[in-house]
């Protein structure tokens, strides 16, 4: 099986199908205000060359999508990881502000192409795009893929778990560290999703008889429901990792 990697700048015709495939991999509630405001900008102008699409050459179908965004570096990365970096990078692109760093935003590999090294290739493609643009730093607010299966353990405890060989317990954190990435700091408010109770019912098939916290399918933290206000708030923690770019 041959997988070809192209940028969205090279193949704008593939952006629609790639977004359709990539979007299908995420929980239905992962859409924050920053996403609605800036996500489509990733495929416009200079940002398009940072978006990587993997095509299965045999079938012509989309095997993976990787998104990242340049941003002006700051030493103290904030708790609002993913939302912050998408907004900061998005504004930098709109205003023509110089950037010296890149942040991964998402890697989505179609289930039948997983465990093949493709996810790592997608991260390598982000690094290549960053190097080609003269950016010297790469970070990622990482969403550990198995955290949702361990809802009773707090986020930082889970991220600190290791296997017997000393590598991270979580497979996605492990893939990053096997590429040389290092843990920087938690981003405990990386994505904030606020929805009406009707929206949360639709997204989760749960019902909310009282205010308080609820287990959330595929969530990395509980959903907080406020019946008086008629809203639910999900605050997703991620972990800032830094990748070597040399
Ligand atoms: C996160 C995601 C991209 C990871 O993709 P993946 O293919 O499952 O993961 P990896 O490439 O890291 O590899 C998984 C396994 O394949 C193994 N592998 C890696 N390269 C390989 C190769 N060339 N041949 C065989 N196996 C390989 C890895 O060692 C790993 O095995 P391990 O768990 O025993 O260590 C994928 O699960 C996904 O799309 N999830 C939905 C979206 C998401 O949550 N994205 C992450 C947040 S941005």
Automatic annotation (TrEMBL):
GO terms for molecular function: acyltransferase activity, transferring groups other than amino-acyl groups. Residues 1-189 form the N-acetyltransferase domain. CDD domains: NAT_SF. Transmembrane segments: none annotated. This is N-acetyltransferase domain-containing protein. It comes from Devosia geojensis.
């Amino acid at each position: 099986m041959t997988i070809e990697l192209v940028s969205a700048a090279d193949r704008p015709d593939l952006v629609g199908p790639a977004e359709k495939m990539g979007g299908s991999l995420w929980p239905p509630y992962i859409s924050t205000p920053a996403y609605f405001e800036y996500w489509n900008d990733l495929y416009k102008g200079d940002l398009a060359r940072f978006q990587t699409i993997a095509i299965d050459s045999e079938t012509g179908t989309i095997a993976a999508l990787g998104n990242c965004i340049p941003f002006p570096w700051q030493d103290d990365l904030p708790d609002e990881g993913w939302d912050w970096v998408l907004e900061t990078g998005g504004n930098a692109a709109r205003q023509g502000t110089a950037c010296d760093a890149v942040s991964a935003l998402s890697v989505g590999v179609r289930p039948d192409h997983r465990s093949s090294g493709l996810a790592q290739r997608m991260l390598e493609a982000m690094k290549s795009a960053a190097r080609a643009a003269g950016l010297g730093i790469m970070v990622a607010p990482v969403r550990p893929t198995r955290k949702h299966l361990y809802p009773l353990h707090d986020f930082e405890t889970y991220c600190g778990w290791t296997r017997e060989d000393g590598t991270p317990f979580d497979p996605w954190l492990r893939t990053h560290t096997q590429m040389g990435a290092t843990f920087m700091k938690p981003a405990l408010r990386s994505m904030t999703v606020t929805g009406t109770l009707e929206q949360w019912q639709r997204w989760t098939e749960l019902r909310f008889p009282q205010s308080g916290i609820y287990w959330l399918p595929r969530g990395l933290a509980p959903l907080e429901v406020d019946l008086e206000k008629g809203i639910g708030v999900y605050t997703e923690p991620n972990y800032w990792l830094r990748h070597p770019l040399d």
